[in-house]
Structures are given as structure tokens and as C-alpha cells.
Amino acid sequence: MENKVYFIxxxxxxxxxxxxxxxxxxxxxxxxxxxxxxxMIQTGNSHVSEDIKLHRHIMGCGWLPEDDERxxxxxxxxYPCSPHLAxxxxxxxxxxxxxxxxxxxxxERFDAVLLEGAGGLMVPLTRKYLTIDYIQDNQYPxxxxxxxxxxxxxxxxLSLEAVQKRNIQLHTLIYNLYEDxxxxxxxxxxxxxxxxxxxxxxxxxxxxxELPLIDL
Length: 216
Description:
The chain is of the alpha/beta class. The protein is about 40% helix and about 20% strand.
């Protein structure tokens, strides 16, 4: 694969990034691409990242040595909120060098690293530094998770405009059927049609995939 590290973000929080990350890692590993996941910053946990646990469950691989080394969860904060606030509550600044070192270590051991962010693209990591800034500074290809629930088109297009403005490579758009499994099927299908056409018009190199219903 051309790139080693792919950043996974979403149009909003609770959009299915963790499900998508675990599923994509499982699929890439099945294709012979040795893939590991990393949670850049985990909030709402005291020690171990619950998102990494979910990744491993979906991947069906069990706990990994890199998990024990905490390379896959370099920063964990206790309060379930945006990273900038979680770090203030815990009275501990986010160590970006620690995160980058962990990502580099994983990229040296695996063919691909799926780096999951916290919340959406504009989530603040500090009072002056956003998630999208981190993606841009590190020139990571982006995998964006979206859904078909009511209001999604607005959120998706705002995210895509931000990506385009910063010249971030949109590698893949994941349309999450699982997140909206109980929603309005008419809205979901129309949103999918609209977004597919938009991607073809403005991001012709971007891959589009659907996240199926996952049996957990």
C-alpha cells in the first residue's frame, strides 16, 4: 500500500468510527495487508481504551502485544468529552510527541495503521488546535465515516468542504448502514444517492464503501 497511516474521522460523534475501524482492519487483514488500529486519544476511560477493545472484538484477533505496550492507546483521559476538556479536567496536557512516536512504532511493525480520532473533524484537541489540524500537519489520508440519518447531508458536505479547503486526501468515504439501521429507509437511500454523486463530481479518486450490519 502506498500509505502506512490512515486517519479515521467522522461527520459527527457517535457515527460509528470504532465499528468502521475494526471492520476495515478485519477486511484488510483478510486480504493479506497486516493492519493494526490505534486510538489517538481516548476519553471516558480510566486505563484501557474501550474503542481498542471493540476493534479487537470485531477483528477477532484478541488482545495484541502492542495493546499491552499501550502503543495503540497512547493517551487515555477519564472524562467522556472532547480531548481538550478531558485533558484540562485530568490536569494533564496531551503529549503529541508520545502519540506520534506510538504511531511510528506501529507503522514500522505493520503494513497499515488505522488511526481513529475522537469525534468529528473539528473536535478540538487543545484550545487552539483541532483534529483536522493534526490530520493536515501529518498529511494523513482521511477515511471519513458518515451515515444516512436525517440531517446527514448537511454534516457531510460541511466536512467535505473543510477537507477540500485544507487539501487533505479523502481516501475513503464509509457509509455506515449500521448506525442508521432503525432510521427512515427513504431518507437513508436518498442521502446515499446524493452523496455518491457528490463524491463522483468533486472527489473522483475517493473510494466509497458501505459498512454492513455487524453481528456483535
